[in-house]
C-alpha cells in the first residue's frame, strides 16, 4: 500500500521579501506523529517548503517533479528500502547526488553514515538541535 504524501508551505513565494529561491526539504517518515511535528516546526520556524512522504517509494516518485535542497530521512522508514538505501538510490541520480541528507533513528548505523558523509540525529531528538542541523546542511 502506498503512503500518504503531504505538502506544506507556510510562506507564499509571492510574499517573500527577497529574490532567493525557497529551499525545499523532503521528509520521509512513516510515523505520523513525528511527521506532523516536523512539518509544523519547519513550516512555522523556517522559510523552507516541506514535502513529506511516508515511505521510500513515494519519496522516489516525488523526486521526478521537484527540486530538493535537503533530504530528511528516517532510517527505518516503511517501503522497499531503508533510509541508507534511499540515500544511495537518490544519489545515483546526477541532479540529486549533491543533496545533503540528515538521517534520524533511535539507533544510527554510524559506520554507514561516516562512509557516505551523512549527518545523523538520534530519536527522540531535540527540536532545536534538529533545526540547527537542518540550517547547517541546507545552506
The largest sheet is: 6 strands, mixed
Question: Could you name the CATH class?
Answer: Alpha Beta
Radius of gyration using CA atoms only: 14 Å
Mean pLDDT: 87
CATH topology: Rossmann fold
Euclidean distance between termini CA atoms: 35 Å
Record the SSE blueprint:
Elements: E1 5-8, E2 24-28, H1 32-45, E3 49-53, H2 56-62, E4 70-74, H3 83-91, E5 101-105, H4 110-116, E6 119-122, H5 127-138
Report a brief summary of the structure:
With 139 residues, the protein is of the alpha/beta class. The chain has helices spanning 32-45, 56-62, 83-91, 110-116, 127-138, and strands at 5-8, 24-28, 49-53, 70-74, 101-105, 119-122.
Keywords:
139 residues, Rossmann fold, disordered N terminus
Task: Walk me through the structure.
The protein is α/β, with parallel strands linked by helices. The protein has a single domain (5-138), classed as Response regulator (Rossmann fold, 3-Layer(aba) Sandwich). The chain is 35% helix and 20% strand. It contains 5 helices and 6 strands. It has helices at 32-45, 56-62, 83-91, 110-116, 127-138; strands at 5-8, 24-28, 49-53, 70-74, 101-105, 119-122. The chain has a 6-stranded mixed beta sheet, with helices on both faces. α1 (32-45) links the parallel β2 (24-28) and β3 (49-53). 32% of the residues are buried.
